[in-house]
Write a structure and sequence with these properties.
Blueprint (H helix, E strand, L loop, with lengths): L15 H6 L14 E7 L5 E8 L9 E3 L24 E2 L5 E7 L5 H6 L1 E7 L6 H6 L10 E9 L11 E9 L11 E7 L3 E6 L4 H12 L6 E5 L12 H16 L3 E4 L2 H7 L6 E9 L5 E13 L5 H11 L9 E9 L13 H19 L3 H6 L21 H12 L1 H11 L5 E13 L6 H5 L2 E6 L5 E4 L9 H13 L6 E3 L18 H22 L9 H15 L2 E6 L8 E2 L4 E2 L5 E13 L5 E11 L6 H20 L5 E2 L2 E2 L18 E6 L16 H4 L1 H13 L5 E2 L3 H9 L4 E2 L8 E2 L1
Parallel strand pairs: 1-12, 8-28, 10-11, 14-15, 18-19, 24-27
Antiparallel strand pairs: 1-5, 2-4, 2-6, 3-5, 7-15, 8-13, 9-10, 9-12, 13-14, 16-23, 17-18, 17-20, 21-22, 23-24, 25-26, 29-30
Length: 756
């Protein structure tokens, strides 16, 4: 099969037919003999000391399996980066919905009443709910200062720039929590056998995260812990670390009962108890010359980590590194910290950290433009990174990226100039105002800094007894196309038809640890390893004289069969080795943060209704450079989905907190955009390639989450002339701002804005 028919073409999805015909098996479809159903008893207060637990009347408690922390065989923690989060609370609770007890019963319908019949008496302790309260240290709820993690990035000499600045522009920007809202709720099944150990099946992103957590919790060796990913209905980061908690709970119930246990969350529990995007606050102070060039600045990036550490350090790291955007900073000081509050821990969500800090950067660029008297277009053009210049971490830009050219193309596609003129005229009359907003940004592919070196990921490719090829990775498919793209890469490397390659179900007894399915690393990092391992299969067959240098698919199949018949199992392995020109200093937080960046310019067109104060996104242009597009249809789908999700982040999805608990934890009152709320999302690609990725690929999945929010808010600000520096931006926020001090919408000289 010619290479031009696989890489770069939209081949059928590997799992597509099973999904659309209903043959795919999700965890709640799975039934094991003699299986019980599990449920979780949770804290109803944000912070306090457990005094007494009482099991109420009217429940046949002798029919239930009841698990508390004293039933944990090993360490009472969910092992991840730190071990501060208990599997089950013992003396203290630190957030609403914190797990305290587990119940199991053969009849799942009896569990809700049983959960409600468990009464827990507390000595309440004063909680803290905001970044500012945490910083004040009125209560110390974590460590000595409520700070989970800090980073400091320094470049140049920031202290000397202020005296030379023509302008010093300051701004504070904030973003709210956001629920991942995957289609399939979280769920796990666990079964225990004293000889074989524990096996869990579930909806998840990272099998080896769960594997590590269960080893610690159950005090079992690696070979007695098995994790199997079922078909997974969406994740977006929400199934990165939290499934370890659910797997732990199902495992404890299975161990105590001696029977398989299924634990499936309903939508309300899933939304109230599990992780969300970290709320953030970013403060900018920027020195700028009279011609609009950034001289340097200080950036403070702070995130609310919730009650426990979880993944806050990596979210904080990426947010800090991306805080300077795609611009050249001669001098910069970035201080980043994650603080503790008494809300459920926040965790990974598509883009983790970058959407928060880039929202601030791109809003701030518009503020700088206004202060200097330049257009939002020109201020960006004058400050774009150029090849040979360095990022905020002093990473030299070696890619031949031309952000000015990318900007020009986006402006042309969006008809920016003609629309801007037309809107200026139209906005003089009527009850609506139209505006255009822009965001330019970058997103690093793969783990930050030395992360990939630390992971040391391994992948395998197997030549099977029937002559077909199987890819062995722990990288999970959850709708984004992992199986399809990795099959494309293997088929391309072997010169085989796409149909001849399959991907093994992620099962820790069967596949190696290829790292978590996060950080836009699958196509670039794991894909490159798949390419290498596949070439190993080919080289083995050629060197053994079973296969000529040039061969057909039938010849490959015959050679593979012969090799397996003679030698047995036929597998080729590839382990990640850091490129020699990629170096990161963990202590100084300086160097090559990522092997490659994707780059983008997004332009949003909005209408603000001055009667209802609603914002409608009318058109959206998403132009990005992503290396090589391996599968155009999947790539376009990733961008459209990311933009849609980010429109929700910008304008709709507000988590309502009360005493640390999410109050709007249903899809009837947590509002996300529907298809009728979305504009035409016009997707365009530039392809410069990438020597570190499979066939030139970079990461793509998280990039489209980064740019829409600032582009949309910039457009709203242009339309009505009032600054907004937070998201989500709801109609009531616009009404309040316009109504404050008697402000009412009316055209300004530009044709848009408000005046007294």
């Amino acid at each position: 099969m010619g290479s031009d028919r696989i890489i770069g073409n939209s081949v059928p999805r590997k799992e597509g037919r099973d999904k659309v015909t209903g043959r795919s098996q999700y965890v709640d479809d799975m039934v094991l003999p003699n299986m019980l159903f599990g449920a979780t008893v949770r804290s109803r207060i944000p912070r306090g000391r457990i005094k007494e637990i009482t099991f109420g009347p009217g429940i046949a408690w002798d029919e239930f399996v009841i698990v508390s922390a004293k039933d944990i065989p090993g360490k009472n923690c969910i092992s991840l980066i730190g071990d501060d989060q208990p599997c089950l609370a013992t003396e203290l609770v630190n957030h609403p919905e914190e797990p305290i007890l587990l119940l199991a019963h053969p009849d799942r319908h009896l569990l809700p009443q049983a959960v409600e019949s468990v009464a827990i008496d507390y000595d309440p302790l004063p909680p803290i709910f905001t970044i500012e309260e945490s910083e004040s240290r009125s209560e110390i709820i974590w460590g000595e200062d409520n700070v989970f993690k800090t980073y400091l990035i320094e470049k140049g000499n920031v202290d000397d720039i202020w005296a030379t600045a023509d302008y010093i522009i300051e701004g504070e920007y904030s973003t709210g929590a956001q629920e991942q809202l995957y289609i399939e709720n979280n769920g796990m099944i666990a079964a225990f056998d004293s000889a074989q150990g524990i096996t869990v099946w579930g909806s998840l992103q990272c099998p080896y995260y769960i594997h590590k957590a269960l080893m610690e919790l159950c005090q079992l060796p690696a070979e007695k812990v098995r994790v199997v990913q079922m078909e997974t209905g969406g994740a977006f980061g929400g199934k990165e670390e939290y499934p370890s908690m659910i797997a732990a709970h199902a495992a404890l119930l299975a161990i105590k009962s001696g029977r398989p246990v299924k634990l499936i969350y309903d939508r309300m529990e899933d939304m109230a108890a599990t992780t969300k995007r970290h709320p953030s606050r970013t403060r900018h102070r920027t020195a700028v010359s009279k011609d609009g060039k950034i001289l340097g600045g200080e950036i403070e990036f702070t995130i609310d980590g919730g009650a426990y550490l979880t993944l806050s350090p990596v979210v904080l790291s990426r947010g800090a590194i991306h805080a300077g955007g795609p611009y050249y900073w001669p001098s910069v000081r970035i201080r980043a910290k994650a603080v503790a509050t008494n809300v459920p821990p926040h965790g990974a969500f598509r883009g983790f950290g970058a959407p928060q800090s880039l929202f601030a950067m791109e809003r701030h660029m518009d503020r700088i433009a206004q202060a200097v008297g330049l257009s939002p277009i020109e201020i960006r053009r004058r400050n774009f990174l150029q090849p040979g210049e360095t990022t905020t971490t002093e990473q030299i830009v070696r890619e031949p990226i031309n952000l000015g050219k990318l900007l020009n193309r986006a402006l042309e596609i969006s008809e920016y100039d003609s629309k801007k003129q037309r809107f200026a005229n139209e906005n003089r009359n009527g009850d609506t105002r139209k505006g255009l907003g822009i965001a330019a940004f970058l997103h690093g592919a793969g783990f930050t800094g030395s992360g990939e070196r630390y992971l040391s990921s391994v992948v395998g490719v197997e030549g099977c007894a029937d002559g077909s090829v199987r890819v062995l990775v722990s990288s999970a498919e959850f709708g984004q196309g992992t199986k399809t793209v990795l099959s494309q890469i293997a088929a391309e490397a072997l010169g085989l038809p796409y149909e001849n390659v399959s991907v093994a179900q992620p099962d820790t007894l069967e596949v190696p640890n290829s790292g978590p399915t996060v950080a836009s690393r699958t196509a670039m990092v794991v894909g490159k390893l798949v390419q290498s391992a596949a070439l190993g299969i080919r080289q083995t067959l050629v060197s053994s004289k079973l296969l000529p240098e040039s061969y057909s698919a039938d010849e490959f199949r015959t050679a593979c069969r012969q090799h397996v018949a003679k030698h047995g199992q036929f597998r080729s392995w590839s382990r990640y080795e850091a490129p020699t020109d990629i170096f990161w200093d963990d202590e100084e937080y300086r160097g090559e943060a990522y092997a490659a960046f994707a780059w983008a310019v997004y332009i949003a067109e909005v209408t603000v209704d001055l009667t209802t104060y609603s914002v409608c996104v009318d058109d959206f242009v998403a132009l990005q450079e992503v290396g090589k597009v391996l599968h155009p249809l999947l790539a376009k789908g990733q961008i459209i989905g990311g933009v849609a999700q980010a429109i929700g982040f910008s304008l709709y999805e507000k988590v309502v907190w009360q005493n640390g608990r999410m109050q709007n934890c249903q899809m009837t009152n947590y509002i996300m955009p529907t298809s009728s709320d979305l504009p035409p999302i016009r997707v365009f690609f530039e392809e410069l390639g990438n020597v570190y990725g499979a066939y030139g690929a970079k990461g793509i999945g998280e990039l489209p989450m980064d740019g829409p929010a600032p582009a949309i808010v910039n457009a709203v600000v242009e339309a009505i002339g009032v600054p907004f520096d937070f998201i989500p931006l709801l109609p009531e926020d616009i009404e309040d701002r316009l109504s404050a001090d008697g402000l009412a919408a009316s055209p300004q000289q530009s044709g848009v804005g408000v005046a007294r």
